Structure formats: structure tokens, C-alpha cells
Amino acid sequence: MRKDEGRAVGPSPPSSAPVAAAVPVALYRVLRLVVTGAATSRAEIARHSGLARSTVGQQVDHLVELGILQELESKESVRGRPPRILSISPRAGTIAVADIDTLASRVAIADLTRRVIAQDIVDIRIEAGPQAVLEAITERLKGLLTEHDRDPWRVRQVVAGVPGPVDFERGCAVRPGGMPGWDGYPVADHLRKSLGAPAVLDNDVNLMALGEADQEQAETPLLCVKIASGIGAGLVTGGGEVYRGADGAAGDIGHLRAIGGGDALCACGNLGCVGTVASQRAILRNLGIPEATDDDPFHGARVLAERITDSDPSALHALRRAATEIGEVAAMSVHMYNPRTLVLAGPLSDLRDDLLSAVRAVVYQRALPLATRKLTITTTRLGADSGLHGGIALAARDIFSRPGIARLLTDRPDES
Ligand SMILES: [Zn+2]
Q1: C-alpha span between 307 and 314 (Å, rounded)
Q2: Residue pLDDT, tens place only, 205-215
Q3: pTM value?
Q4: What domains can be seen in the chain, in order of their start residue?
């Protein structure tokens, strides 16, 4: 039942072949209708696709045989034969995701229906360098696969996010601040080789934005602002795509000049960057709270939350001052992008009321009415998991793209 189950029938194309050409049109249409949820039965597929019922039947049978789709009898009681419902098989493969962050990383595995199977935190700092971090992450992901009886040869896609600008095509970070050794390191290649599946690297806030935009009733364009060790933003367009910019530096708003930035020196070499004066790291520094301890990578966030809950005046003041600066750059971004939804994410977003009300006040005061008329400003719905969910959404999109389906059909692990 393991790795040879459902393996390719007939010869596999050489890896350099244009695999996209190998996907039969009818099969592609049938599978896409099920993946998008537009159809859940053979009859619905026939109706939506205009394909002959016999063609639909052949393609569905083939996809069920390959283990990509499953067909289950509906539990609804109806007269005659119970209808059979088509869905993506939960055993069709696994998605592996890592949200790499400054103080610790999060990892998760999910099935191709995007259901999270398991997740965990990997306690390693980003400054340990790419090799150590990626090895720790890979090891944990492999552990999760084993613990949850997932075939390691059926990882279909790996997605990772890092807190810095990313060259999406090359799969590496580009001059990221505070990440020694990561500049240009082939992260996607490393993950592809160690997990044996196609891998992509994205900016962490882009993934968070995708995760938030993927939630029911989330309205796009959606701008997600992450406030953590630094400040960054990710934009999902009205068409559901991440806007990455020409060089992957879109949304790097942490280096916009803060109104009250003064001469605070930023790691980038400039003075008064908003990430230096209004990030969680900056607030903790002002209050003399260590960001992390040896036993607890989230020590700073916890202590700050406690102080805010206890209405500690200096903590409240520091938070509101930061929120005002964040509001200023949020207002600028709202003018630039005119989003329908602005999501505040990162550990500070747990301090919902204080952060949100201060940011809202500045945005509504600074931005023009046309840009804010239908704007919703809110905190993350997924909390610390938004990056993981965005990674899973991005992976599922790749897996069910035309080249992704071609790979699914040949069911070969990436061997290079
Ligand atoms: Zn800067």
C-alpha cells in the first residue's frame, strides 16, 4: 500500500520534457471542476464542462484509479441509488509548509484538500543560518510525516516563507536584514532536495496575506501588515494573486520613514525607519523586556501581553505610540493600494483592542474617504497560523496548476 501504489502507468516523460503538454484536456477540465468545488458529481461535471457523460466517466475512473480523486456514497438518504460525491482524495499526497521566523519557525503538513494534518514549532533562531535552520525544519517535517503515516514519497509541494525580500523565481532571500548567511542561499533548492518535491520560497507576509485572503468572506484586495521583529506588508490583489513587485521587495514598508522616527538607526543603514521604532522588538527594547529567553522564544510577546492586560501605563503608552506610527504607514499603504481589507498580523495583533483602535484612528484620519469608505481594518483571523495556511493555499494552487497536474499524473518524486 505504500510508495508504489498508484505509480505511473507507462513510461514517464523525461524531466526536461514540457510536461504541461501531457495533461489531456478533458482530464484537466474534470479535475479542475472538482478542485474548485464547482462540481461534486459526475452529472455536475458533465453539465458544467459540456463533455459527454461517457468521457466524464472515463476521466473520473482514471483519476480515482490514480488515487487523486475519491468517490463516496452520499449519506443523504434519497430514493433509489444514493448519489456519489467526488472529492480530492485525502491520500493523494501531502503538502509540507514552513513559516521561518526570527525567533522560531512553524511547520505543518496538510493533505491536498488543504486540511492541516499536523503542525509544530521548531525552536531555532534564524540567525543560526540557512543550513542549520533548514535541516531542523526538514527533520521536523519528516518526523510529522512518519508520525502521521504519510508516505514521504508523496510530498507534492513544499512552501517556505522567510521574513525578508525574496527572489521568487530563484527561491532565495535577497539581502534580508538580520539573517546572516541567507542572502542568495538556495532555500527552495535545499528543501526540494531534502524533501523530494518541488519547493518554492516566498516572503512570510505574502504567505500570511494569502492565508487571510483565503478565508471565507475575506474581501480582496487584501493588505496584511505584520508587526513582529520588523514590520512588513503583503498584498493579495483582487484576482487573488500576491503582488511581489519587480524584485520581490514589494510591501517592505518597515523601511518607510516614521513620523517620530528621529535619528534611530535601522539595520538597513537609514535613520528613523518605522520597523526600528514601532515593531514589537522596538517596543520590548523600550520597555526593557528581553525578546526571547533560552526556554521561551516568545517570552517578550507573553510579558508584553501580560503588562497590557494589567493596564501597565508604560506598556500601554509604548504600544499606542507604536500603533500610531504603524497607522501612518498603513494610511500611506491604503492610499497606494486601495485595499478592501487591511489585516494586522504578528504577535502584537493579540493585543487586539489597543492596537486596532489606535491604527484605525490614524488611518481614518489620514486617508481620504474614498480609500476608506469600504475598508475593513481588522486583526488576523488565523493568528500565528496565517503564514502556514497561506503556504498551504499556495501549494494547492501549484499542485492543481497544469504543470502540477502533469506531475501528479506521472506520480514521480522529484529525483534531482
Ligand atoms: Zn530601515
Answers
A1: 9
A2: 999 999 999 99
A3: 0.89
A4: 19-88 (1.10.10.10), 94-208+388-410 (3.30.420.40), 219-380 (3.30.420.40)
